[in-house]
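Notes from the 1:1 (GR / supervisor)

We went over the backlog. Supervisor wanted to see one worked example end to end before approving the batch request, so GR pasted a single chain during the call. The sequence is below; no edits were made to it. Supervisor asked that the structure be written out right there so they could see what the output format looks like.
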Amino acid sequence: MTAVAQPAEPTEPASTEPGQKEPVAESAERERAERSESGWSGSLPDAVRLRVVGLASDALGALADDEVPSSLKPFHRWAPARRTKLAATPLAAAIEHDVLFRQRCAARLREAMPDLAAALEAGTLPAAADPVDVAAAAYLLRPADWGSRIAEAAEQLTQATAAAGTAEAAEMLARLQEKLAAARTQAREELARSREETAAAQAETAAVTRELRAEKGARRRAESAAEESDVRAREAGEAAAAATSAAETELRRMRARLAETESALESARRATRGGRSAEDTRLRLLLDTVVDASQGLRRELALPPTTDRPADLVEAAAPGSASVGSSQPLLADDPAVFDELLALPQVHVIVDGYNVTKTGYPDLPLEQQRSRLVAGLVALVARSGAEVTCCFDGATVGGHIPSMSRRGVRVLFSKPGEIADELIRRLVRAEPQGRPVVVVSSDREVADGVRRHGARPVTSAALVRRLDRG
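Structure output shown during the call:
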């Protein structure tokens, strides 16, 4: 560590009491007395104060931990630039009130600027010395005339500031004069340009005036030509009206001939229908005669009514007798029931699509459900040859109705505002009486409705099991 310079004032021997604070107190007392005699009483100029704080910040960074004043310990480890910027007030207060810290800063100054320190203590200064450095060094070293040194530096700084302001004002005046001259030059150029543009505009106006006059002459000629065209158009219109009248007269003549022809054709048709109606009347009379004769024959023979049917005459095991090799009846969802129905001649199987897919594979997306069911029905039709129609709700498709009909399988979607149940009922009602129709659905309402129209309902589970079986 660098040795710290001792205070310039003479001190008495230290007391034997612990703490040893009396020499410092006496030194502070002397400093206050010395400042009251020849010290600086006002505030330091800003440049001098910043220089003093910078010197104190550099000195604080070089001190040992036990040499740092308690008020500056939080800033001891900071970077010098940060300490100078953010701890300026604590540093200035420590220099002002802590004599020992100021003396250590003065010792640091002697090491950094030995020539300036020696000149201040000798009372002579270099002519080229910076007044800010002189004032800051005088404030830290406190020579006999340190107050006057600070005053001289403050005066020099004031003069320098005034001179700088005067120079800046002169420079600004010169810049303004240059701008004024440039503005005048630009104004003259703009005026010349405006005159040229005005001359060009006047020339263009004259040209436009000439063109306008020529345009007026052309317009008068065009109006005259238009009047002639109107006369010719009226003449052509009158000729067209005469031709149209002649054409309408010819059209009426042709329509009259067409009406005569249609009347003759209708008369021929009525004559043909009359002959056909007579034949139908004779056939109906003959049929009624045969039917009445058969009814009269039944009354003459007095045949008793019978409730017997051919099936009642077939021998079978009597109720209550012991059965041999009896089997359980087929369940409603047994695939064998579906196989028996497929064996019927000309059977038409109508499938409630989503009712079957929700029973067999409800976890799949709707598109995959439709594709899987239709693929299974195609295989079933290939083996049985039955007619199969699969119905889906059109509202669940969204966007557009896909074309899904495959070989042997008719795929239908319900219309907007209609559900698949209504489509199935319309399909059942469209079938002729006597044709076997099978409806695959576990919906009770659908099953009851189609049963009333002669169709046979089968549960969806039976079809799912039949398709799983392959």
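Supervisor's comment: The two ends are 101 Å apart (CA to CA).
Batch request approved.
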